[in-house]
Amino acid sequence: MQNHSFVTEFILLGLSQNPKVQKIIFVILLLSYMAILGGNLLIVVTISSSPALLGSPMYFFLAFLSLLDACFSTAISPKLIVDSLSERKTISFEGCMTQIFAEHFFAGAEVIVLTVMAYDRYVAIFKHLHYSSIMNWRLCGILMRVAWTGCFLHSTIQILFVLQLPFCGPNVIENFMCELYTVLELAYKDSHVFGFFVVANSGLMCIMIFSLLLVSYGITLFSLRTHSTEGQWKALSTCGSQIAVVVLFFVPCIVMNVGPPSTFSFDKTITVF
Question: What pTM was estimated for this model as a whole?
Answer without folding.
Answer: 0.81
